[in-house]
């Protein structure tokens, strides 16, 4: 009996010792990733581009380009990698992708622990770029921008537009560029051409035309604008577009980068945007019960031809081309004030950032330069997106709708997705926009809360 | 010498020590996975800044900020409302079904027991998705049925309506959760002596009197247990809110766990986020202690 007890005790002690030993091992925190696709390229003769690396180097590039939700961007990126690999056999790119929700959880944790890749996509403003920039995780691109003449190339000002959220100045004179974008994500109205023809309508040339179209459909018993705000972002798209329609671009920039404290969200032009949002709900221009409808269901209403107009971005062009039972057209969101410059939301998509711990910075910069080159941007264009840097589209595949988008956004000023201005506004405006649209808060109260959040952010260190 | 050593070892491995030794592995696991993270959470709640590596010691500032934050109090109130709803809906429905299923003469009793328990095994994310679909204002069956029976005016976007969103989620949750209370009550009902029902019948008691004077006292302990578990669960609710409404419309369905999620992951204010977790844990611990004390009293009174 005693012997058995002793054995039992020894076994238990061994188990405890093993457990302690297992716990004491200092394991390197492993970055949890989704399925990783490595693009291994066969050896090809080196081209004329100078190679910073003489030995074979592997660069990890972290994106949100998933083959599921974000198939178009994923396909474009993968195609770009093939071209890159042929030209740079010594620098292998390992593409690691995450869905956008992981950019709120896994990716920020990896940034904090210094485990993220050499190039990482960052949501602009308060979501990723700003906190990462303020925490000192990012290498400014400025030196590389000089070296590769990105500033001269970026005639559309996409780099500055991407980095305004970091509190930098809106001129090129010495800003720190934390992120470099390669494509735009323009918003606009996609409409049912067949339905417009039936109603005898044409795309609006100005605000009055647009309101007339809205009224025509309303009188015909159809809410003209598809709206699905259950996930809270679609309301922000409408609101951001309305802000672009009412607020002069200089005032908008001043509010955005905090350079002029006298410009406030409570000013009449900003307020008019919030008021119009509510007026349009009361007028019956939107899908009823929009706060209970997901965006995908709302888009289903548009694609099924039940409602004629949808405000969304060009990332849905391919989906519309594939699924709409009618011809889809595009027009930019009109300007409400004829005296101000036409501003639409065409902020650049998530830019690439380089974390400080990247061991192959020169190679990463070379790859970045490739992504914003003609060769790097062509696959994105062919997937329906609009490149940020000057680009020759001749000879490339493009759908009619995509060309309409390109034509529609040309020459318009670039407004903002209003939620990404800073972290305080970001966290407030997502739930608050639902309350604005359903009339639970007045436009004045809404504007006041947004302005207070903005001021709170600007008064904090790093703001 | 050998005898002395054996005696010492014997004392070391005596009955009491051996019991502790057996508990040790479980205790170690508990320490590593529960006590340490909990202490770390309290520690983190004393730091400010953004991110998980915040190093600015701010003392009790996070607690002050939390308690003066109207969004937290809104989440807290919603959580109390949620607790009230799920203490009533699934528990009473589970009890109702258990009483019916406990009848020995019910045909297909085993079949119904199994089928009615099934929703309990569905993961809460799926439950949320199913009910989101049920409530969908465009094609959801709830509104379709209402229109079919002439109540079209009542039809609405349930999850987008400030007044109804939380209750709509609670109904979905209750559908999945009643199985737990049903099974516990069924077990408790089997412990009630049949002669008590016979005696009640002889005394002329009707069904309701039988339930009130025989069934309910007989399952008092089980009821207290179910209520305690449901209460604790109600303060841990997150997934059905996250998938169902993302806290919306506005802040209508924000509960404390959602507050914790939003402040930690969306706003990256980890200190304030985990502070809400500490306050939530303290609150649930106090409530649980109160309940356990009450349960102890019941046990004592029943001898």
Describe the structure.
The complex is a heterodimer of chains A (463) and B (303). Chain A has 463 residues and is of the alpha/beta class. Chain A has helices spanning 2-24, 71-87, 106-112, 129-134, 142-147, 150-153, 158-163, 193-199, 207-219, 233-246, 249-257, 268-283, 295-303, 317-323, 361-371, 374-382, 400-409, 423-437, 443-459; strands at residues 36-38, 57-63, 91-97, 119-121, 187-192, 225-226, 309-313, 328-331, 343-345, 352-353, 413-415. Chain A has 19 helices and eleven strands. In chain A, helix 10 crosses helix 18. Chain A starts with a helix and ends with a helix. With 303 residues, chain B is an all-alpha fold. Chain B contains 14 helices and two strands; from the N terminus they run ααββαααααααααααα. The chains are: A alpha/beta (463), B mainly alpha (303). At the A-B interface, helix 1, helix 3, helix 13 and helix 18 of A face helix 2 and helix 13 of B.
Keywords:
heterodimer; A: 463 residues; alpha/beta; five-stranded mixed beta sheet; four-stranded mixed beta sheet; 11 strands; B: 303 residues; mainly alpha; two-stranded antiparallel ribbon; 14 helices; flat
Mean pLDDT of chain A: 85
Tally of strands of chain A? 11
Largest sheet of chain A: 5 strands, mixed
The most extensive contact between chains is: A-B, 42 and 39 residues
Q: What Rg of chain B is obtained from the alpha carbons, in whole angstroms?
A: 25 Å
Distance between the termini of chain B: 52 Å
Helix-and-strand structural type of chain B = mainly alpha
Assembly of the depicted chains: heterodimer
> Which runs of chain A of at least 5 residues are low in confidence (pLDDT < 50)?
19-50, 167-174
Roughly what is the average pLDDT of chain B, rounded to an integer?
89
Q: What's the order of the H and E elements of chain A?
A: HEEHEHEHHHHEHHEHHHHEHEEEHHHEHH
The order of strands across the largest sheet of chain B is 1-2
Strand content of chain A: 5-15%
- Fraction of helical residues of chain A: 40-55%
């Amino acid at each position: 009996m005693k012997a058995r007890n002793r054995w039992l005790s020894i076994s238990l002690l061994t188990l405890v010792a093993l457990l302690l030993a297992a716990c004491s091992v200092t394991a390197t925190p492993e970055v949890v990733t989704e399925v990783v696709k490595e693009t291994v390229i066969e050896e090809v003769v080196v081209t004329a581009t100078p190679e910073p690396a003489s030995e074979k180097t592997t660069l990890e590039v972290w994106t949100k380009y998933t083959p599921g939700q974000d198939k178009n961007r994923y396909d474009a990126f993968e195609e770009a990698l093939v071209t890159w690999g042929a030209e740079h056999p010594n620098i292998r790119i390992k593409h690691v992708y995450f869905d956008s929700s992981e950019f709120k959880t896994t990716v920020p944790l990896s940034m904090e622990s210094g485990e993220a890749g050499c190039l990482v996509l960052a949501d602009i403003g308060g979501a990723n770029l700003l906190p990462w920039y303020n925490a000192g995780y990012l290498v400014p691109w400025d030196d590389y921008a000089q070296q590769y003449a990105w500033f001269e190339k970026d005639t559309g000002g996409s780099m500055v537009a991407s980095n305004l959220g970091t509190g930098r100045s809106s001129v090129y004179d010495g800003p720190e560029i934390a992120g470099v974008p390669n494509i735009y994500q323009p918003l606009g109205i996609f409409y049912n051409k067949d339905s417009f023809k039936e109603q005898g309508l044409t795309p609006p040339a100005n605000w009055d035309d647009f309101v007339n179209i809205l009224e025509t459909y309303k009188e015909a018993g159809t809410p003209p604008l598809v709206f699905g705000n259950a996930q809270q972002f679609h309301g922000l798209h409408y609101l951001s577009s309305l802000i672009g329609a009412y607020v002069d671009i200089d005032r908008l920039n001043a509010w955005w980068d905090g350079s002029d404290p006298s410009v406030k969200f409570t000013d009449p032009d900003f307020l008019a945007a919030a008021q119009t949002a509510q007026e349009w709900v009361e007028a019956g221009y939107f899908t009823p019960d929009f706060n209970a409808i997901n965006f995908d269901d709302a888009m289903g209403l548009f694609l099924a031809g039940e409602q004629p107009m949808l405000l969304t971005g060009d990332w849905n062009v391919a989906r519309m081309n594939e699924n709409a039972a009618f011809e889809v057209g595009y027009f930019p969101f009109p300007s409400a004030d004829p005296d101000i410059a036409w501003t639409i939301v065409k902020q650049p998509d998530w830019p690439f950032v380089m974390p400080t711990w990247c061991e192959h910075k020169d190679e990463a910069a070379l790859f970045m330069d490739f992504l914003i080159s003609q060769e790097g941007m062509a696959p994105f264009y062919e997937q329906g997106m609009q490149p940020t840097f000057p680009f020759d589209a001749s000879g490339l595949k493009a759908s009619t709708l995509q060309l309409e988008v390109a034509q529609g956004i040309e020459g318009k000023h670039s407004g903002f997705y209003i939620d990404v201005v800073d972290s305080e506004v970001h966290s407030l405006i997502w739930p608050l926009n639902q309350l604005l649209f359903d009339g639970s808060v007045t436009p004045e109260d809404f504007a006041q809360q947004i302005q207070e959040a903005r001021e709170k952010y600007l008064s904090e260190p790093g703001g | 010498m050998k005898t002395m050593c054996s005696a010492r070892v014997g004392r070391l491995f005596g009955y009491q020590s051996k019991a502790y030794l057996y508990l040790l592995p479980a205790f170690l696991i508990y320490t590593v996975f529960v006590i340490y993270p909990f202490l770390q959470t309290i520690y983190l709640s004393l730091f400010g800044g953004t991110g998980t590596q915040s190093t600015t010691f701010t003392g009790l500032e996070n607690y002050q900020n939390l308690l003066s934050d109207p969004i937290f109090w809104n989440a807290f109130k919603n959580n109390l409302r949620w607790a009230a709803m799920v203490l009533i809906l699934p528990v009473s429905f589970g009890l109702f079904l258990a009483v019916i299923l406990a009848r020995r003469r019910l045909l297909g009793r085993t079949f119904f027991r199994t089928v009615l328990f099934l929703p309990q095994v569905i993961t809460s994310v799926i439950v949320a998705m199913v009910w989101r679909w049920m409530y969908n204002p465009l094609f959801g069956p709830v509104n379709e049925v209402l229109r079919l029976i002439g109540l079209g005016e009542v039809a609405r976007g349930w999850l987008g309506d400030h007044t109804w969103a939380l209750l709509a989620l609670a109904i979905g949750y209750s559908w999945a959760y009643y199985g737990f209370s049903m099974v516990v009550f069924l077990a408790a009902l089997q412990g009630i002596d049949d002669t008590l029902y016979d005696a009640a019948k002889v005394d002329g008691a009707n069904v309701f009197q039988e339930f009130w004077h025989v069934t309910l006292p007989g399952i008092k302990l089980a009821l207290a247990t179910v209520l305690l578990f449901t209460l604790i669960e109600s303060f841990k609710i997150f997934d059905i809110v996250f998938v169902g409404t993302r806290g919306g419309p506005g802040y209508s369905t924000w509960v404390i766990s959602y507050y914790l999620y939003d402040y930690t992951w969306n706003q990256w204010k980890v200190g304030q986020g985990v502070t809400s977790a500490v306050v939530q844990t303290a609150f649930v611990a106090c409530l649980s202690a109160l309940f356990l004390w009450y349960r102890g009293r019941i046990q004592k009174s029943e001898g």
